[in-house]
Each structure stands twice: as structure tokens, then as C-alpha cells.
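C-alpha cells as discussed.
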């Protein structure tokens, strides 16, 4: 274990320094390299191995060449349903399921996903747990069916149907179904959604699912990627040991699919409970392996994907008829989809915006992009690739890139061809791709405010399932244990001060040539004036509208030229302006960031445009079930006068945002965004000695204004807890959002290691009691949890539980009963204690694999007043915990669990259920 090095806090002596020029995209692309080796087992399993010794972890990804496009009529949703069965249910030789041992071994980034073209299962595990993880992955592949029962099928069917309800319940949540059903003819493999239909999910039988596995999940239909702290010789031995005995299965030939063209433009109008009209345009275009894929992606980025996009400049910043725009290219195995979305300004003329959208697109297709636009789009894409490849696994890492290449292109190194394709994109190639594909008839969808079209629910009852014979279980040798763990090697923390006294906190990460910087101010949403909530969000949104000698478009263009990203955000306790940049372009990126922080213009026209956008965001938030709940609970828990008793999204209300003046914004910036409230955090592959002169040149000469800096006041008392229910009526909701809130008697500076460990038993994580009960046993939710939020001054505890509408009251009662039992006679069990301690100790070495994770660790240490070596002290602290200590801390902080319940749902369905619980019920109309 390396101790963090604390350097003396001395003022930086500025060394000679010169500004450097930006590095072109071609040079950034040359830094992308994922060396790999591959082999194939006798049973057809293709294996790809990438060695990366940066951390003692290995990403294990199993990808199958089956997705929703391969589902026959009447079996929509089967691939996704079976992913759930494989992910959450027992196997023949791991009868307790894979989730418990995965958590106990300290796995991170573990999940499974399904899309049109593939199903995957993945986890990143400590090196000493690789054998156990491979045993489990192979049992999922070759020894699953004997453990699949009707009860488990019914349970996961319910979970999946609640996942569908959760997505469908969101604003604009039903649009995608119409897009697919209109663009693709009957029988086309891409015509139905991956989630499937309620009717097909209802009809799925146990024998159907068994046959689905036999047909699609053999080793000859799979790619296994091992990336991380492993070499090919070790991988070959272990993969043969655990997968070599699995027989070949049926050969799945992924469905072929043509690129359909509509015979004429199709215009459709839908309705939803939304505050503004949304316009959409969609075409089916070539897919991932097409030679035109890169040109189509660049075309979308330039038109509506980049911050400097043509749609942003024309509709958002130009005539201000839209509050947001987007354009995207989604590449799939056989085809792709090119789509545009425009959110019309509330009260605006949707017909005029629609005509303007079509005219802008026609001009773009006719004349193509400029060389500068192409260069910016390509640079931004390659910079994004650099960042995505930092982790070994997860949703975006190197294992994903290798698996996709092998599965879709028979080449793990397909990413090289993709990067070369981006390097070859020209204005002419973009123009040619658009003229070939976007001049065809388009699907134009308009979603207008109003009542939703009828929702197709699952059947209330299903006929009794046909009896299915039990299948034999093939025993294997016992699962290997987890080996000896390596301790966490957290990088040394270095410190210095700039010429003006701003402290710099630094750690080095050399995995990718990326630098991350967070300039953090002791402000946060708690600093918003009580009578002008939303001021800070409006101010932060304006920082990149005009700063220094650049306007919004020029700032966006400069970011894109550099491959950099600058963002401005606020938590409740801190305000942060962040920079992520290719290290080669750090100096000019810092120069741009300094302008954004120090020299915002707050031009009147920009203020009015951003005000309109923020008002539209408030309206969107008030139409979303999650947004409604998030706006309601803080005042109920903390009281309306407390700095934390305000909506924690920070958007404010129409009344307060409408009243903020330019002088208010300038005053807020002067009071809070200043060097004497700032601290800078840096993680980079460059040493601090190279970065410090750049920081000092751009931020070290910054002088605070003469006026005093802001001070937050937390004197307002938190009201006594009064358990009750506040029901927010949202008609036509197939699902209810349940939030349970209480304020704990603790602050962020008081360490919660013991409490958080105890809470894993009841509330936090997939294996928590409340999730296992309501999701895994009853099938009423896609997922729920309860945890303490890390606020600095006073810590709230929140339960978040989206559940199917007809089970809302029962779910609240289950939650009340579970917490009561946990806090009285059913505290942490020996098995829970062992799993929790093992998991938290073993996950530490893999917890800081990325520079983003390191940066967050530095920032949280500062926020909560922790020592630099905090993370390296955790393992022995966890190991010393016993059940009594866990129970005592949970009972001390949660007490009698006096939750106030905020529920967003259809009152006509939900209110009678809630009134039966015996708690006071207040019904509020949706705002």
C-alpha cells in the first residue's frame, strides 16, 4: 500500500511557459491501440484477449450473436427476457444465482444487455476472482436450463414488463414503437422493439424459453473477451478448463435484413402529456460495417449533434423557435437509423418550425458541410473514443470494442478500420452519403401535448402454464474460491498553490492521454437565493453562451477543434466547471476554460434565450414522473426554508426564473465564482510539473473582486418527521414512482462507512432486501433501492421505487414492513455481513480504474474533509466490522424510519390502495 504524498502547500514559482498549438485529429487517432490475441476452442467459442496491467482486474464479456431482430413472430422480447433469466437466476451449479458471488468477489461494472443484434453478459472482476467468474459465466452458457423453472420465468416476465412500463411511462416514451412499425414492413427483423410486446411476453412458455436457449446460446454462437490483468497463455488454459466441455449448440445465423425505403413521405401525429410539441425525422440507412457509416455519423454530428451544429445555430440560437435539437446516427449490424429531433419552443408555431427544419436539411444535403465542420466532428469523435477506451470493460471499454468487432465484422481490430474511415471522411463523402440516403422519403412524426393514445397493458391473468418436464442437472466440480487479493494501490496525491493561492490537488493516471480538470467552488445549489431559485442554473448555462471574445458558436467550435469538453454543473454543495481534454491539446483547452470561468459576457439576448430554455426544462421536469417526485420531496423532508429544501435539480420555478435580472446573474457570479472560493482537481497522464505552469498562466493571475464572497446559512431547523403520503396525480400512468424520504441525524463530514455497509443489507444494491422482495420475488418493479445521499451539511435517506400501478399500495406496505423488521428483530445476518465485507474490500482495487473515478475520489475527499490516504484505510475498517456494529449504526441513524412518502401516479388507480395503509394521504394535482 502506497501512502499518499502530501506536498507542502507553497505558492507556485511560475516557470517559463509558452502557449502550444492544438494537435490534429489524425495524431489523436494514432494513440488509439488495443493489442489483442485470439483463439477458438474446438466447440466454436471465439476468444479474444487483451492484456492491460494498469489495475489488478479483468473484464470478462460474453457476447452472443442473437438479439431482437432474430425473434420470430409471436416471440418478441424473448432475447431480452432470456438475458434477464441468464443474469438474475440460478444456474445448475450455482443454485443461489450469480449475483451473490459476483458481489462477494468485488465485481464492478456487472450487467447484461440486449439490443437488436446481440445479447451480452459482462463483469469486471479482481484478478484473483477470474477463475470463479469464468466458472459462473460458463455455467450460464452451458448449465442454465436445468435451473430454469416456471416460477423463475414468471418472476422475470413480471420484471421485464415493469421495465417496459418504466420506459413507456416517460414523456415521449411511446414514440419509438411507432417509428419502427412505420419504417419497417411486416415481417422485417427490425420492425419490433427489443423490449417486445406485453402479449408476446405474456404468452412465453417455459418450453419456448428452453428452446430459445438451445437454438441461440451455444459456444459456437458466442464471443468471449478477456481484457485486463491476464495474458493469452493463462486465458487459453482457463477458458479451456471452464468452457471446453460445453458442446456445440445449434448454429444461429443472424437474420438478414434489407434497408427498406418508404414509398412516400409519411406524416404522423401522436399525443402525450408533454408541455411542448416535438418534431422528428427518421430514415433507415446503412449500418455498422458499411463504408458510408463514418460519413453518415459525421453528417448527423454536423447537422444536430455538435454544440456548434447547424440546427443549434439556426433554431436554438438563431430564430429561437426551438429549445433543443438533436441529430444522430444509430448503426446496427444490418442497417442503421438516421434521426432528427426538435423540441419546439412552448407556444411556438410548430408548422413553421417543421417547414424550416425541412428547408435547412434540404440546403445541407444540396451543398454539404465545410472542411472545418468535418474536421471538428471527426476530432470530437476520436476524442470520445479515447475516453471510452479507458476502462477495460463496462458499457464502453476495450472489451466492448473488441467484442463488437469480432461479432459484427469477424475482426476484433475492426475499430482500426473505423478510425481510418473517420480519417478519410471529406465534405464530398458526407454530401454523397446524404444525397444517396436522406433524399429518400422520410418518416415525420409530431408529438403534440394532449392525452396519450390507449396503452396496451399486460393481461390481468394468464392461463395456467402447460406442464413442463424437469430437465436433468449436469453436475460439475465445485466452483473455485476467490484467491488472495492484492491491496488497493491508490496513486499519490500531490498539492501546490497557484500564484493567487488557489489550491491544486493532483493524481496521475497514464492509461490514456487524457487530462481531467475540475475547478470547484464552495457554492452549489444551496447558495441560490431563496427568493430567486434557479439563478445559479441560469448563470451556469450562460457561461458558454459568450465569454472572452467568443460567442456561443465560437466557443463550441473551439471545443470541437480541440476535442475538449467543458461543462458547468452544480450539486447541492459545490459548483464545478470541468474540462476533459486530450492531453496534447491541454494548454489551448485551458485557455478556453479560463475564459468561460472568468469572463462570461451575460449578454441580454443570451439571457433571454437561456431563460426560455430553462423555463422549457422546468415544464419538461413537471411532466416527467421522476421530475415531479424530485421537485416535491426536498421541501417535505427538510422544510421549505432550508437550503436543502428546494428541488435539487436547481431549475427553480417559472416565477423565480422569470424574475432573474442580468444584474442578479453578475452579482451571483462575483459572489461565488471567484478564486478565493475555488479549488482545482487534476488527473492526467502528464506530470504536475508540466500542468502547473499552464494552470498558473490561465487561472493563477485571477484576482477576486473587492466584495466579500458568499456564505451559506444552514440555521433553518429541519421539521420533525411526520410519516404521511403525498400523492401527485398523473393520469394515464402505467407505473407509480414511490419516493420515501427522511433526514438522518448526521452530516457528510461524519463518516458513514459503517452505515453504508449496513444499508447494503436493506436498501442499497441489487441484493438488498427491498429489491429482492419487490423485484425478484414479487416481480412488481424493474428495480428499487434506498440509500443515504452524500450532502455536506445534513444527509437525507431516499427510497426510490418505481412499481406497477396496481401494486402501489402493497409496495409501500412491503417497504414499511421491511425497514421495520430490519431495525428491530431482523438485523444484518451473518451471510449478509460476510458478503458485504468481502464485496467492499475486494472491489477497492478495481474501483479507481479510470481517471474519472480518481478525480471523483479526490473531490469527495475534499468535500467531506477526508485525508488523502482515506481510500487505502478502508479495507481494514471493513474487515473489523461485526453484525452488532452494523445493526447499531443502522438503528442509530434510521431510528423508526419515519418516512414521508411521495408517490406520482394515476390517483384514480392508486388512491384507494394508499388510503388502506392508515397513513394520512394528501392528493396534489400535477403542476
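Sequence:
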Amino acid at each position: 500500500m502506497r501512502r499518499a504524498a502530501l506536498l507542502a502547500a507553497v505558492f507556485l514559482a511560475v516557470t517559463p511557459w509558452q502557449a502550444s498549438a492544438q494537435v490534429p485529429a489524425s495524431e489523436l487517432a494514432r494513440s488509439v491501440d488495443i493489442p489483442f490475441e485470439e483463439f477458438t476452442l474446438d466447440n466454436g467459442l471465439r476468444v479474444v484477449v487483451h492484456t492491460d496491467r494498469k489495475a489488478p482486474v479483468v473484464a470478462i464479456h460474453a457476447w452472443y450473436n442473437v438479439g431482437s431482430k432474430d425473434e420470430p413472430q409471436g416471440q418478441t422480447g424473448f432475447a431480452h427476457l432470456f438475458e434477464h433469466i441468464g443474469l438474475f437466476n440460478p444456474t445448475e451449479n450455482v443454485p443461489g444465482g450469480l449475483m451473490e458471488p459476483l458481489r462477494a468477489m468485488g465485481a464492478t461494472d456487472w450487467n447484461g444487455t440486449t439490443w437488436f443484434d446481440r445479447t451480452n453478459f459482462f463483469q469486471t472482476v479482481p484478478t484473483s476472482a477470474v477463475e470463479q467468474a469464468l466458472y459462473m459465466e460458463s455455467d450460464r452458457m452451458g448449465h442454465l436450463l436445468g435451473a430454469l423453472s416456471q416460477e423463475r420465468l414468471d418472476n422475470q416476465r413480471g420484471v421485464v414488463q415493469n421495465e417496459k412500463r418504466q420506459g413507456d411511462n416517460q414523456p415521449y416514451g411511446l414514440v419509438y414503437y411507432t417509428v419502427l412499425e412505420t419504417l419497417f414492413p411486416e415481417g422485417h427483423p427490425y420492425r419490433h422493439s427489443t423490449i417486445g410486446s406485453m402479449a408476446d411476453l405474456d404468452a412465453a412458455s417455459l418450453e419456448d424459453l428452453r428452446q430459445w436457449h438451445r437454438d441461440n446460446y451455444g459456444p459456437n454462437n458466442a464471443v468471449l473477451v478477456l481484457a485486463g490483468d491476464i495474458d493469452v497463455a493463462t486465458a487459453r488454459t482457463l477458458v479451456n478448463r471452464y468452457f471446453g466441455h460445453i458442446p456445440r449448440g445449434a448454429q444461429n445465423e443472424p437474420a438478414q435484413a434489407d434497408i427498406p425505403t418508404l414509398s412516400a413521405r409519411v406524416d404522423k401525429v401522436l399525443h402525450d402529456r408533454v408541455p411542448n410539441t416535438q418534431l422528428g425525422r427518421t430514415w433507415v440507412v446503412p449500418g455498422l460495417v458499411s463504408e458510408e457509416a463514418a460519413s453518415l455519423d459525421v453528417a448527423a454530428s454536423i447537422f444536430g449533434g455538435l454544440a456548434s451544429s447547424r440546427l443549434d445555430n439556426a433554431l436554438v440560437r438563431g430564430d429561437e423557435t426551438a429549445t433543443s435539437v438533436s441529430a444522430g446516427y444509430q448503426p446496427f449490424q444490418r442497417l442503421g437509423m438516421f434521426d432528427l429531433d426538435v423540441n419546439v419552443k412552448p407556444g411556438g408555431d410548430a408548422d413553421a418550425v417543421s417547414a424550416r427544419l425541412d428547408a435547412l436539411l434540404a440546403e445541407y444535403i444540396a451543398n454539404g458541410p465545410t472542411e472545418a465542420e468535418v474536421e471538428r466532428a471527426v476530432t470530437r469523435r476520436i476524442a470520445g473514443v479515447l475516453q471510452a477506451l479507458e476502462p477495460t470493460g463496462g458499457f464502453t471499454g476495450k472489451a466492448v470494442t473488441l467484442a463488437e468487432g469480432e461479432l459484427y465484422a469477424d475482426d476484433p481490430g475492426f475499430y482500426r478500420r473505423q478510425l481510418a474511415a473517420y480519417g478519410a471522411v471529406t465534405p464530398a463523402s458526407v454530401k454523397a452519403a446524404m444525397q444517396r440516403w436522406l433524399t429518400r422519403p422520410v418518416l415525420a412524426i409530431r408529438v403534440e401535448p394532449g392525452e396519450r393514445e390507449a396503452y396496451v397493458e399486460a393481461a390481468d391473468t394468464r392461463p395456467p402454464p402447460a406442464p413442463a418436464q424437469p430437465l436433468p442437472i449436469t453436475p460439475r466440480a465445485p466452483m473455485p474460491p476467490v484467491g488472495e487479493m492484492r491491496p488497493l494501490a491508490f496513486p499519490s496525491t500531490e498539492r501546490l498553490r497557484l500564484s493567487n493561492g488557489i489550491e491544486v490537488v493532483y493524481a496521475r493516471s497514464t492509461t490514456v492521454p487524457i487530462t481531467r480538470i475540475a475547478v470547484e467552488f464552495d457554492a452549489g445549489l444551496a447558495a441560490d437565493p431563496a427568493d430567486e431559485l434557479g439563478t445559479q442554473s441560469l448563470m451556469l448555462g450562460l457561461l458558454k453562451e459568450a465569454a472572452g471574445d467568443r460567442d456561443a458558436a465560437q466557443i463550441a467550435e473551439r471545443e470541437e477543434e480541440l476535442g475538449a469538453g467543458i461543462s458547468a454543473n452544480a450539486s447541492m454543495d459545490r459548483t464545478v466547471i470541468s474540462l476533459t481534454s486530450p492531453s496534447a491539446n491541454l494548454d489551448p483547452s485551458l485557455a478556453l476554460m479560463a475564459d468561460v470561468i472568468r469572463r462570461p459576457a451575460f449578454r441580454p439576448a443570451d439571457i433571454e434565450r437561456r431563460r426560455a430554455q430553462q423555463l422549457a426544462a422546468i415544464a419538461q421536469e413537471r411532466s416527467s414522473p421522476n421530475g415531479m417526485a424530485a421537485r416535491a420531496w426536498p421541501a417535505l423532508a427538510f422544510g421549505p426554508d432550508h437550503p436543502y429544501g428546494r428541488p435539487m435539480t436547481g431549475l427553480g420555478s417559472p416565477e423565480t426564473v422569470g424574475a432573474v435580472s442580468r444584474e442578479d446573474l453578475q452579482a451571483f457570479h462575483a459572489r461565488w465564482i471567484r478564486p478565493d472560493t475555488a479549488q482545482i482537481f487534476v488527473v492526467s497522464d502528464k506530470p504536475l510539473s508540466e500542468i502547473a505552469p499552464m494552470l498558473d498562466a490561465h487561472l493563477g493571475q485571477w484576482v477576486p473582486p473587492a466584495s466579500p464572497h458568499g456564505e451559506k446559512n444552514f440555521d433553518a431547523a429541519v421539521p420533525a418527521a411526520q410519516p404521511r403520503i403525498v400523492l401527485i396525480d398523473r393520469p394515464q400512468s402505467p407505473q407509480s414512482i414511490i419516493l420515501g424520504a427522511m433526514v438522518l441525524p448526521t452530516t457528510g463530514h461524519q463518516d458513514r462507512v459503517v452505515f453504508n455497509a449496513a444499508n447494503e443489507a436493506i436498501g442499497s444494491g441489487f441484493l438488498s432486501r427491498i429489491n429482492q422482495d419487490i423485484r425478484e420475488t414479487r416481480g412488481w418493479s424493474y428495480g428499487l433501492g434506498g440509500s443515504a445521499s452524500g450532502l455536506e451539511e445534513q444527509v437525507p435517506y431516499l427510497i426510490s421505487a418505481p412499481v406497477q400501478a396496481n401494486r402501489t399500495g402493497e409496495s409501500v406496505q412491503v417497504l414499511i414492513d421491511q425497514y421495520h423488521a430490519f431495525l428491530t428483530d431482523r438485523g444484518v445476518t451473518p451471510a449478509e455481513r460476510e458478503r458485504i465485507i468481502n464485496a467492499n474490500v475486494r472491489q477497492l482495487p478495481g474501483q479507481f480504474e479510470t481517471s474519472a473515478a480518481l478525480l471523483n475520489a479526490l473531490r469527495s475527499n475534499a468535500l467531506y474533509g477526508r485525508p488523502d490516504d482515506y481510500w487505502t484505510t478502508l479495507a481494514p475498517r471493513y474487515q473489523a466490522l461485526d453484525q452488532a456494529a452494523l445493526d447499531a449504526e443502522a438503528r442509530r441513524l434510521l431510528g423508526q424510519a419515519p418516512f414521508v412518502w411521495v408517490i406520482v401516479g394515476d390517483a384514480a388507480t392508486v388512491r384507494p390502495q394508499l388510503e388502506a395503509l392508515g397513513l394520512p394521504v394528501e392528493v396534489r394535482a400535477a403542476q
